[in-house]
Amino acid sequence: xxxxxxxxxxxxxxxxxxxxxxxxxxxxxxxxxxxxxxxxxxxxxxxxxxxxxxxxxxxxxxxxxxxxxxxxxxxxxxxxxxxxxxxxxxxxxxxxxxxxxxxxxxxxxxxxxxxxxxxxxxxxxxxxxxxxxxxxxxxxxxxxxxx
Amino acid sequence: xxxxxxxxxxxxxxxxxxxxxxxxxxxxxxxxxxxxxxxxxxxxxxxxxxxxxxxxxxxxxxxxxxxxxxxxxxxxxxxxxxxxxxxxxxxxxxxxxxxxxxxxxxxxxxxxxxxxxxxxxxxxxxxxxxxxxxxxxxxxxxxxxxx
DNA sequence: CTTGTTAATGCACTTCTGTTGCACTAACAT
DNA sequence: ATGTTAGTGCAACAGAAGTGCATTAACAAG
Lengths: 147, 147
Ligand SMILES: [Mn+2]
Ligand SMILES: [Mn+2]
Ligand SMILES: [Zn+2]
Ligand SMILES: [Zn+2]
What we know:
DNA-binding; binds zinc ion; homodimer; Arc Repressor Mutant, subunit A; disordered N terminus; alpha+beta; 3-stranded antiparallel beta sheet; 24% strand; 4 helices; binds manganese (II) ion
């Protein structure tokens, strides 16, 4: 028998979503998930820190690590030197093999976004090489920044 | 009139090569260039530091920066978190536009190599996006490490 | 060869990002 | 109510990258 307290409407769908991935839906985790959900662009840890200025850096760090380990967030290396994070799509399985969508980094607004519909094409490798994973980042100007 | 001292045979071709790119061929620079030339795999700054243990970190750092600025070395972001560096091919123009070869990172030997013959394929982007540069890193097992 | 200018080097110090240890606290099941 | 497990906050640390400044080397002109 479960005694449930009244849930905030915005969060009502996030809580079971976290539980489904065996992540305890703590207040902080729900807020971080919400933050990632509301932003189209992938976020760096420092971005999350700045947004939740009152929270501890380590908690946010470990929150993201947990999300990543549980497979609901994927890390993006866009070449800027700092890792970015974005929510995985429904049914994506980054943990096992990379979902091979590409990422776009805009040199104007400095934002990185997932192009989930654009998969990395098959690459022919020299003899003896076997591929397990691939990372493709296109740099240029995004739709919002091109006039 | 130039009074030239006797050159070590291995270095005889590097000195003019550096001068051609407006890089003063100091002893350190020649040695770093030689080091990169002798290694197939791209090297991180820490690798160069370890190889030239007696030298100062800053000098090596600025040596690589100079090489990069002058367009004889290109930086590789292989996703390991530390930047790698490799010599550019003859006639490559990384400075202007990336030469679109891909890079391979082996998860066994942890080395990163340029696959200069393997160009990054043309990618279709959504409307409004324009590409200026691309970085593709394939992770897997290299020829030396596969059985 | 001497001198003056410019570039390279070495050392110390700083910043930024990521990571860990540990004590404390909240959550949950029994 | 209680014990176990997991999350949090603080401090400290590690690694890589970058900067300021004084010293030294390279080079060209006289
Ligand atoms: Mn993505
Ligand atoms: Mn390369
Ligand atoms: Zn943009
Ligand atoms: Zn290998």
